[in-house]
Write a structure and sequence with these properties.
Elements (H helix, E strand, L loop, with lengths): L1 E9 L3 E6 L1 H6 L7 E10 L4 E7 L3 H14 L15 H11 L2 E7 L2 E2 L5 E11 L3 E11 L3
Antiparallel strand pairs: 1-8, 2-7, 3-5, 3-8, 4-7, 5-6
Length: about 140
C-alpha cells in the first residue's frame, strides 16, 4: 500500500485556465509504483481553483475564461474589495470551480480520458505562485 503526499509550487500565471497535468505528474514520482489508486489534487488558495477539462484546444480554455469573466463581473456591488477589483470575483469563481480533484490511477498513470487535462483556474490578474497538495494512495504490484 502506498500513501504519499507532496506539495508543489506552480509558477505564477495570468488570469485564465492553464494546463498543469505535466507539472502534477512530475510532482508525484511515486505514481509509477501504483497499480490501482487515487490521486487527490488540492489547490491551497481561495482565488484559484482546479477543473478537469479539454487538454487539446486552447480555444476551450479561452472560452472558459471569457464565460467566467462575464458570469462573475468585476463591476458589481462587491463589499470585499481590499485587494483590488479582481479580488471578490476571484473568490466567487473559485467557489464555482472548486479547490480539488480526485483522479483514478491505473498501472502507474492517471486514468484520464483522451482529451482530459488538469487545469489550474487562475482567477486573479496576478495571483502569484500557487501551491498544490498532491496525495496519492493505492496498491502497488506487490500488494
Amino acid at each position: 500500500m502506498v500513501w504519499v503526499q507532496h506539495t508543489i509550487a506552480l509558477r505564477p500565471r495570468p488570469r485564465g485556465f492553464h494546463l498543469v497535468t505535466d507539472e502534477v505528474e512530475a510532482g508525484i514520482p511515486e505514481l509509477a509504483q501504483v497499480r490501482v489508486g487515487l490521486l487527490h489534487v488540492f489547490c491551497r488558495h481561495t482565488s484559484a481553483g482546479l477543473t478537469l477539462n479539454e487538454n487539446a484546444s486552447p480555444d476551450v480554455r479561452r472560452d472558459l475564461r471569457t464565460w467566467m469573466d462575464v458570469a462573475v463581473p468585476e463591476e458589481f456591488a462587491w463589499t470585499h474589495t481590499f485587494e483590488g477589483p479582481d479580488d471578490m470575483p476571484a473568490h466567487v469563481k473559485s467557489a464555482l470551480t472548486g479547490p480539488d480533484l480526485t483522479i483514478p490511477v491505473t498501472d502507474g498513470r492517471l486514468a484520464l480520458g483522451t482529451w482530459q487535462g488538469i487545469t489550474l483556474c487562475e482567477h486573479r490578474d496576478r495571483g502569484g505562485a500557487r501551491q498544490l497538495v498532491l496525495t496519492l494512495t493505492g496498491a502497488g504490484a506487490d500488494d
